[in-house]
Write a structure and sequence with these properties.
- This protein has 18 helices and 17 strands.
- The chain is an alpha/beta fold.
- It has a domain of 129 residues: Isoleucyl-tRNA Synthetase, Domain 1 (Orthogonal Bundle), CATH 1.10.730.
């Protein structure tokens, strides 16, 4: 067992409130439709949220991390019928697969919400009732286009060659009686919210929302369906089901036990709703309007990531271009997949996935660069000092050692700055660049020849720092390093 030195501190910072309690941090992912098994895009969002959650735990915050499944969509009911299965049986089977995905890839979520659960249904109906009692819900009729892939009402200008650009399918024409939400009432407040500092991150996604509101305005939104059989009933009119997007968004507070649950009182408002760019409108516009209608505090940040693509096209269950993450586990370690997703997919933009790129990144960088330095250092400690870290001898007087010690501290600061700004891929690049410097330092000092205790002392503490800063990204590998 190698004893890591405590003389060089880890990049841990205490975040607390005025009364000494830990600062809370509540992060959510979008909840996933269960019309099919999970694909790599679902995993990517969960890995990114997990990295943010683990980092915030590492620096001392009280974290609550939520993910889950959206089970009340009409598309789920359709998929069950096509599979020849009972709807509940179909949904239970697929929801279980999403839960297994979290476990298989070391996702550290604190809760998994299913929107068919009673704890959610009650809150969904309560929120709808509050909106109605506040005069924001009225009955009318809707006729127009509806995309079941998006579970969204469409206009002709939303389409490309008559098809939904997200799913490549033609929306269906529907005509039905439904309830409407006075979304238009909240246009000024929502626009001011989005125009404010860092509500929507990154700036590009913020400007997209501002441009759309200024161009189209906010039109009242149909928030119930009278011609679907699956979903949460409108509490005062059971012939209607609550529109899936209203129902789905409520999961962020239903999981906390809104309105009186201790978790709700402790963790709401959310610090981060992490979502894909395709559902930015629902989270940045519709969700705040619902909360304003109900008098509920607003979330702090809507954090919008790009898509994983293949040949420049978004992964899609409906298009048959989805990649099964469980298949990847048959060939690669969990941490190899996590590392690649965090490193090679630019967090705020789209990024292409290929197995060739995964292998090259993992072999060349995670193993060949980072792993190589760790292995060389720990092997030298065993061979030269029997597994005990040598005591340094005035290492401050060794300019190379002292300079490299500063690089260790700089890495800690850089990681903190990057991850506090959600720059997941750039933070990991800082680690990879640091490992290159570590290998250069080790090669220059040649402790296998000189048995220089200062060089090895510094290298061991570099290994220690790597184990810490890599913990959010590759938790299994980090734990193994720490236990050596």
């Amino acid at each position: 067992m190698i004893g890591f030195s405590d003389k060089i501190k880890s990049p841990r910072v205490g975040f607390s409130t005025m009364d000494g309690r830990k600062e809370k941090f509540y992060i959510t992912t979008a909840i996933d439709y269960v019309n099919a098994y999970p694909h790599l895009g679902h995993l990517y969002e969960k890995v990114c949220a997990d990295i943010i959650a683990r980092w915030n735990r590492l620096v001392g915050r009280d974290v609550f991390f939520l993910t889950g499944t959206d089970e009340n969509a009409a598309k789920n009911e359709r998929a069950a019928r096509e599979a020849g299965l009972d709807v509940k049986e179909f949904i239970d089977r697929n929801a279980k697969r999403f839960q297994e995905l979290c476990k298989a890839f070391d996702i550290s979520n604190d809760d998994f919400i299913r929107t068919t659960e009673e704890r959610h249904r009650k809150v969904s109906q309560l929120v709808f009732t509050k909106m109605f009692e506040n005069g924001d819900i009225y009955k009318s009729s809707y006729s127009g286009l509806y995309c079941y892939g998006c579970e969204e009402y469409k206009t002709e200008k939303d389409l490309v060659d008559g098809k939904c650009p997200e799913h490549g399918t033609e929306p269906e024409y529907i005509e039905e009686e439904c309830y409407f939400f006075r979304l238009s009432k909240y246009e000024k407040q929502v626009l001011e919210l989005i125009e404010g500092d860092r509500f929507v991150i990154p700036e590009k996604r913020k400007q997209e929302m501002i441009a759309r509101i200024r161009s189209e305005g906010l039109r009242d939104l149909a928030v119930s369906r009278s011609r679907v059989g699956w979903g949460v009933e409108v509490p005062f009119d059971p012939k209607h089901k609550i529109y899936v997007w209203v129902d789905a968004l409520v999961n962020y507070i239903s999981a906390l036990g809104y309105p009186n649950g201790e978790k709700y009182k402790k963790y709401w408002p959310a610090d981060v709703h992490l979502i894909g760019k395709g559902i930015n409108w629902f989270h940045s516009v519709i969700w705040p309007a619902i909360l304003l209608s109900c008098g509920i505090p607003l979330p702090k940040h809507i954090l919008v990531h790009g898509y994983i693509t293949i040949g420049g096209e978004k992964l899609s269950k409906s298009k048959g271009t989805a990649i099964d993450p469980f298949k990847l586990l048959e060939k690669y370690e969990v941490d190899a997949v996590r590392y690649f997703l965090a490193r090679d997919i630019p967090f705020f933009e789209d990024g292409d996935f290929t197995e060739k790129a995964l292998v090259e990144r993992v072999n060349g960088e995670l193993v060949g660069n980072i792993g190589n330095f760790i292995h060389r250092t720990l092997t030298l400690i065993w061979n030269l000092y029997g597994g005990e870290v040598p005591k340094p001898q005035d290492y401050e007087k060794d300019k190379e050692c002292f300079s490299f010690l500063e690089k260790i501290r700089e890495l800690s600061n850089a990681m903190r700055e990057r991850l506090e700004n959600y720059e997941i891929d750039k933070a990991l690049k800082e680690v990879a660049d640091f490992a290159i410097e570590c290998n250069k330092f080790l090669q220059a000092k040649e402790p296998w020849k000189t048995k220089d205790p200062n060089a090895l002392y510094i290298c061991v503490n570099a290994v220690r720092t790597l184990a810490i800063v890599l913990r959010p990204y590759v938790p299994g590998s980090s734990e193994k390093i720490w236990k050596i």
